[in-house]
Write a structure and sequence with these properties.
About 3% of the residues have low confidence. Strands 1, 2, 4, 5, 6, 7, 8, 9 and 10 form a 9-stranded mixed sheet that branches. This protein has a two-stranded antiparallel ribbon with strand order 3-11. By secondary structure, the chain is of the alpha/beta class. The chain has 16 helices and 11 strands. Helix 1 crosses helix 12. Strand 9, helix 10 and strand 10 form a beta-alpha-beta unit.
Length: 412
Amino acid sequence: MLTIHRALKPKKKGHFKTGLAIAGGGPVGAIFELGTLRALDESINGLKLHKLDVYVGVSSGALIAASLANGISTVEMCRIFMGQEYASIRFDPESLMRPAFKEYFERVSMLPSVLTGSLLNMIRHPRTSNITALVGQLGKIIPSGVFNNDSIHEFLESAFTATGHSNEFDDLKCALYILAVDLDSGTAVRFGSKGHRHVSISKAVQASAALPGLYPPVEIDGHFFVDGALRRTLNASAALDEGVDLLIGVNPLVPFDAGEKGLNTQVSDQRLTRGGFPLILSQTFRAMIQSRMEAGFRKYYSSHPTADLLLLEPHRKDEKIFFTNIFSYSSRNALCEHSYQVTRQHLLARREDLQPLLEKRGMSLNMELLSDPHRTLADSICEGHSSHAHVTRNLTRILDDLDELLAERKAS
């Protein structure tokens, strides 16, 4: 869905600044964001999402924001994360699921001292000791994260090096803010801001994406950081405070509305309670995130009256977004294609509202691309590549057209 908030006091002249704020959402959210951003990038003449003034990233959105701020285009990012053979680097999503063995061993090593301390306490204070206290003590040996998030830092660090980009905030030509939460104080920290620019970009992204329970907290300068989404959804104020007058926000986390039927009838009988605890927890988290994000956007509308705001989100009845298995290669590609097509449809449907907003910035909708019913994400990210992919795609399309024609002949 595309939500448009027109500026209360629109800026009429001078230098216009454009910013992008990308929320978290785990692997599924990141793939949704990639398809959405690619559709947006190619559909607006004069807009280059890897050449904006300000970027803000939270959690998994931090990875995409950091890549764009470094000048890596949406085309190349789609090629990398969709596993295309001609991508500049290889990405293995399963690397994000490596067990956090170090964390396991450190916690297990605490077991003797925790048990000894608990038993001594029970002997010394038999009347006041109880099973609840023992369980509380044993909680100390439970790992703080299941998976090793060093792979996030390692992947980004190697990716920036391999593609000739920088892993330092000071080397960027734009402003980049990565949000994380200081675990010991509960405060939000913007890496990339004054006092927090010495941290490498890849380490900041690792910290921002450290969802408690899934990944261990990330230590930086003696402090431990966890997922930035715990305090902020988009943190778009970081961009608006920089004087951005066109803010584009992408939020993949909206609560699912099962209702009577969803958008995709083949799975419309899905019910959250049938999915057990994981889906119930996901729905609860999404509802909290969505509520906070809506409140934030209402605040931005009045606190920054000269800014036009665009917000892209999934439809609340879209089962493909909610029930996708992100670790399936085909599902990953299908989801990215789906978000690409849905975004194109929304841009086309809202063209009359968008055109005036874009024109004053020297931009315009590319109606030729948006009106092409056959255009796919594969077409979009293969353009300019010197291989036989273009011939293969055209041949496939011709064969599909012939199949449809033959089917129509048989039906008549």
